[in-house]
Specification:
It contains 7 helices and 15 strands. The chain is α/β, with parallel strands linked by helices. The chain has 3 domains: 5-88, OB fold (Dihydrolipoamide Acetyltransferase, E2P) (Beta Barrel), CATH 2.40.50.140; 108-250, P-loop containing nucleotide triphosphate hydrolases (Rossmann fold, 3-Layer(aba) Sandwich); 267-316, Ribonucleotide Reductase Protein R1, domain 1, CATH 1.10.40. The protein is globular.
């Protein structure tokens, strides 16, 4: 029996932009503006075990703001410009959507997250940095810390505050989009990878990307003199091609990154320094806050775990 037209014409591509139910998909045959097949607006729940035959167990409406994210690999039919299938994701960075709390995926299938904070304007907020790190760790994405605006406050002034992150194995780059410090090194770290730039508003993400590749021409804004917080200049996520290879996503500034679907039992696993002590507490269901015989609290008391990072963990529970 001959193949159907739909089987012959189906092609694979990557979603590089999404806006109001329309998706720009890059393929080997060019870019297409597509809509989503109706059935994909429902979530198909499959068995988690690989030993079970894949089958749909039930269908339900997705608790998501958008069932397809930038970075998704999809199957589409160019004749009708419809996305027929979303391929399995390697990973995804998510957050709760404003107002509804539903799941919002910022980007799928990424290689690294460049977490951008500034030395000042807005000031370096380690408590907020911890939340970004937990979200990235939970998404199984490699983080790269980028401390920007070192033309305003030299890197030496914040080295001590960041020393705990170096001890935990986090890589830290210091940059200035104004005088170019660290820009070449950051450009090299982006080469050949799909990266997301995330961080609070006003830390200079868009300005940094313009310094890395001037032709991007991303809009930039200043920090509000009233609130001390950045003004949003990026309104949606978009994958941008880099001249030296790779892709980068600029994201809307996040003043407070909510943690999507991370239970109190899971949270300790996203603090790297807790790992040697997990499973050693007297109580199996220890919350690591008040229980006697807690290995985490004992490590804090002994100085093996940074006390401020521990308090950051307690605030997130």
């Amino acid at each position: 029996m001959s193949e159907s037209r739909s089987e012959v014409s189906a092609i694979e591509g990557t979603v590089v932009r999404a806006n109001s139910g329309l998706y720009e998909v890059q393929t080997a045959a060019g870019n297409f503006i597509c809509r989503l097949r109706g059935n994909l607006k429902k979530e198909l729940i499959r068995p988690e075990s690989d030993s079970l035959r894949p089958r749909v167990q039930k269908a339900r409406r997705r608790r998501v703001t958008d069932p397809v994210a930038v970075g998704d690999r999809v199957i589409l039919h160019p004749e009708v410009a419809v996305i027929e299938e979303v391929l399995p994701r390697r990973n995804a960075l998510r957050r709760p959507a404003p107002h509804t709390g539903d799941q919002h995926t910022l980007l799928a299938n990424l290689d690294q997250a460049v977490i951008v904070f500034s030395t000042i304007e807005p000031r370096l907020d380690l408590w907020q940095l911890d939340r970004f790190l937990v979200a990235v760790e939970a998404a199984a994405v490699d983080p790269l810390l980028c401390i920007n605006k070192i033309d305003l406050v030299p890197a030496e002034k914040v080295q001590e505050a960041l020393s705990v992150y170096r001890r935990l194995g986090y890589e830290i780059l210091f940059t200035s989009a104004v005088d170019g410090q660290g820009v070449d090194e950051l450009r090299c770290r982006l080469q050949g990878k799909i990266s997301i730039f995330c961080g609070p508003s006003g830390v200079g993400k868009s300005r940094l990307l313009n310094a890395i590749q001037p032709g991007l021409n991303l809009r930039v804004g200043e920090v509000s003199p009233v609130s001390g917080k950045g003004r949003h200049t990026t309104s949606q996520v978009e994958l941008l091609p880099l001249e030296n290879g790779g892709w980068v996503a600029d994201t809307p500034g996040l003043r407070q990154l909510g943690l999507w679907d991370i239970s109190p039992q899971e949270l300790p696993y996203y603090f790297r320094e807790f790992e040697p002590y997990l499973g050693q507490c007297y109580f199996a269901d220890c919350t690591h806050q008040r229980e006697p015989g807690c290995a985490i609290r004992a490590a804090v008391a002994a100085g093996a775990i940074d006390e401020r990072r521990y308090r950051s963990f307690c605030q997130m529970q």
